[in-house]
Design a protein that fits this description.
CATH superfamily of the largest domain: P-loop containing nucleotide triphosphate hydrolases
CATH class of the largest domain: Alpha Beta
CATH architecture of the largest domain: 3-Layer(aba) Sandwich
Radius of gyration: 27 Å
Largest sheet: 9 strands, mixed
Number of strands: 17
Oligomer: single chain
Bound molecules: iron/sulfur cluster
Strand content: 15-25%
CATH topology of the largest domain: Rossmann fold
Strand order of the largest sheet: 14-13-12-11-10-9-8-16-17
C-alpha cells in the first residue's frame, strides 16, 4: 500500500513497537516533532536511528522536526508567540503535499491543531501526560492513580467528540495488540471506481418509474413528484457541476425517459460533461434512438436480468418484453450499449445464458452486480453463491467470450481502495429534488448527510458548504465508508 504512517511527539517504547511493525509490513514512516525547539532531541534521534535500521530498502521515511524546520524557527524564535503558528503553517503545507497519508500515531496537540484532517485514522498511544499530572498533583489531594484515571477519561471523551470513528486509543502501559491495530488501519473499500482527478456526479433526474423492481435502491413511484426540477433548473444543475470542475455525469432515475424533456437535458449535459444514462429501456423507440444518435454519450446502460422468467422474478410482470423492445430499437444505436445484470437467486446458475443473450442484443458490454436487498421484503431473492465463486465463474466467461463482448463485474475481489472517502470532493449524488449528498449510499443510509438546500435555486458551492456536509467532506467523518454500514 505504501501508506505513510505518521508518528509524533516523544518516541515512547509503545510507539516505537507499533512503528517498527507497521514499517516492516507495508508502510512508510513520517516522524513529526515540532513540540519544543529548545528540547534536546537526542532521545528521539536515537529512536529514529533505530527505526531507520528497521526500514526495508523499498520503504521511504521522512523526519520532520524542529531541527528540520530550523530556518523558520531561527527566523521567528524571538517572536515566541508567533513561532508555533508559523511552524505549523509550514508543517501543514508539507503534509498536504505528501500522498497516501494514512495513520497519525498520537499527539494530542497536533490533533488540536487539526492535523487529523491530513490523516485517515489516528492511533493514540500512551495516555500518560506528565505535565498535566504534575499540575494536578500540585493542586489537589488526589492519588496519582486517580489523577491518571481522570485525565485519561477526559482525553478519551475529547478525542471521541473531535475525531470519533477515526481514533483508536491504546493504553501505552499495556502490551500493544498489533492485530487490533492492523484491523483498524485496514484500507477502506469504496464502492465506486472513480478515475483519478476526475469529478463525477450521479443524478437521479426523476423518482418516477414504470417498473417496481423488488430491489430498487430508490423509493421510486409510479406517480410523478410535482416538486421535481424543471428543464431550466436542470440546466442550472449542469452549469453548477461544470463551474465546480465536474467532468463526468451519470443520469439515472426512476426511469429518466419518463421525463418529457430528457432529450433536452441529455443534449445540454453531453455538450458540457462526459454523460451516460441508465434506463430500463421500456420507453425507448426507434425515433428516440435516432435522436440519441445525434448526441455523443459515453454509454447507454440498460438493466436486463436474464430470460423472461429470471428478469420478471425480480423486476415484476410484463417488464421483460418492454425492455427487450427497447433493446431491439437500440440495436441501431451509435452510442455504446451496456447491459447491467443483477445476479440474484434465479439467474446465478445461468450467467453464460445471460451473456449469450446480451451478445444477440448487440450490446458491447455486460456488467454484473450483486443484489443489495436493502429495500426488499423477500430476502430469498438474494444470490446464494459466495462472491469469490461468482467472480471465478465470471472471469472464465470473460475470457471465453472476449471476442464477442466485454464482460465486467462491479464487485471485484480487488475493490478500489481509497485513503479517504471521495464523497463530496470527487463524487456527489443529486436527488430528484436537487438535494445533494456525498454519495448514493450515504443518501440511502444516513439522512444526516443530505443537503437542506437544493440546486433548484442554489449554487453547488453553497449547498456543499452546509454544516453537515462540510463536516463529512472535511474529513472528520471521512475515515469510514458509509456504504459499509
Ligand atoms: S427500473 Fe430501475 S428505477 Fe425503476 S424500479 Fe427498477 S431499479 Fe428502480
Ligand atoms: S461513502 Fe465514500 S468510500 Fe463509501 S462508497 Fe460512498 S464515496 Fe465510496
Amino acid at each position: 500500500m505504501n501508506n505513510w504512517i505518521g508518528i509524533t511527539g516523544k518516541m515512547s517504547a509503545g510507539k516505537t513497537t507499533i512503528a517498527k511493525q507497521l514499517i516492516k509490513e507495508e508502510n512508510n514512516l513520517i516522524y513529526i516533532n515540532v513540540d519544543d525547539f529548545r528540547r534536546k532531541k537526542l532521545e528521539d534521534e536515537l529512536y529514529i536511528k533505530e527505526l531507520k535500521q528497521q526500514i526495508p530498502p523499498l520503504r521511504k521515511y521522512q523526519v520532520v522536526t524542529s531541527i528540520d524546520l530550523n530556518k523558520y524557527i531561527y527566523k521567528y524564535k524571538k517572536y515566541m508567540k508567533r513561532y508555533k503558528k508559523i511552524l505549523y503553517k509550514h508543517l501543514l503545507l508539507y503534509l498536504s503535499n505528501l500522498k497516501n497519508k494514512q495513520i497519525l500515531v498520537e499527539w494530542a496537540l497536533l490533533i488540536n491543531d487539526h492535523l487529523d484532517k491530513y490523516f485517515r485514522k489516528i492511533i493514540y498511544v500512551d495516555i500518560k501526560d506528565e505535565i498535566a499530572i504534575n499540575r494536578l498533583k500540585k493542586n489537589s489531594d488526589l492519588k496519582i492513580s486517580e489523577i491518571k484515571k481522570r485525565l485519561k477519561e477526559q482525553k478519551i471523551q475529547r478525542f471521541k467528540k473531535e475525531v470519533k470513528e477515526k481514533i483508536l486509543i491504546i493504553d501505552g502501559e499495556r502490551t500493544v495488540n498489533m492485530e487490533q491495530i492492523k484491523e483498524f488501519i485496514k484500507p477502506m473499500k469504496c464502492k465506486f471506481t472513480l478515475s483519478n482527478n476526475k469529478k463525477k456526479a450521479i443524478w437521479e433526474v426523476t423518482h418516477q418509474c414504470n417498473y417496481q423492481c423488488s430491489y430498487c435502491m430508490f423509493s421510486c413511484n409510479y406517480k410523478k413528484e410535482e416538486r421535481e426540477l424543471t428543464t431550466e433548473e436542470c440546466y442550472h444543475v449542469i452549469d453548477e457541476l461544470v463551474k465546480e470542475g465536474f467532468t463526468q455525469l451519470k443520469i439515472t432515475g426512476g426511469e429518466p425517459f419518463l421525463r418529457k424533456d430528457i432529450l433536452e437535458i441529455l443534449t445540454y449535459a453531453s455538450k458540457r460533461l462526459e454523460t451516460d444514462i441508465s434506463t430500463n429501456a421500456s420507453m425507448i423507440t426507434e425515433n428516440i434512438v435516432k435522436k440519441l444518435n445525434n448526441l455523443s454519450l459515453k454509454m447507454i446502460h440498460v438493466s436486463l436480468d436474464g430470460t423472461k422468467e429470471q428478469h420478471e422474478s425480480v423486476r415484476g410482470k410484463n417488464t421483460y418484453e418492454r425492455t427487450l423492445k427497447g433493446l431491439e430499437a437500440l440495436k441501431k444505436s451509435k452510442n455504446k450499449i451496456r447491459i447491467g445484470t443483477v445476479i440474484h437467486a434465479n439467474n446465478e446458475n445461468d450467467l453464460e445464458g445471460v451473456i449469450k443473450n446480451s451478445i444477440d442484443l448487440k450490446a458491447s458490454e455486460i456488467i454484473f452486480s450483486i443484489m443489495d436487498l436493502m429495500h426488499s421484503e423477500d430476502k430469498t431473492l438474494g444470490k446464494k453463491e459466495p462472491n469469490h465463486i461468482l467472480i471465478k465463474k465470471i472471469k472464465v466467461l470473460k475470457e471465453k467470450y472476449k471476442d464477442s463482448i466485454i464482460v465486467n463485474l462491479n464487485f471485484d475481489d480487488q475493490p478500489s481502495y481509497v485513503t479517504k472517502c471521495p464523497g463530496g470532493n470527487h463524487f456527489i449524488f443529486i436527488d430528484n429534488l436537487g438535494r445533494v449528498s456525498p454519495c448514493t449510499w450515504i443518501y440511502e443510509k444516513n439522512k444526516d448527510f443530505i443537503s437542506k438546500q437544493s440546486l433548484k435555486n442554489e449554487t453547488l458551492q453553497n449547498v456543499l458548504s452546509e454544516e453537515n456536509l462540510k463536516q463529512f467532506i472535511c474529513g472528520k467523518k471521512a475515515g469510514i465508508c458509509y456504504g459499509e454500514i
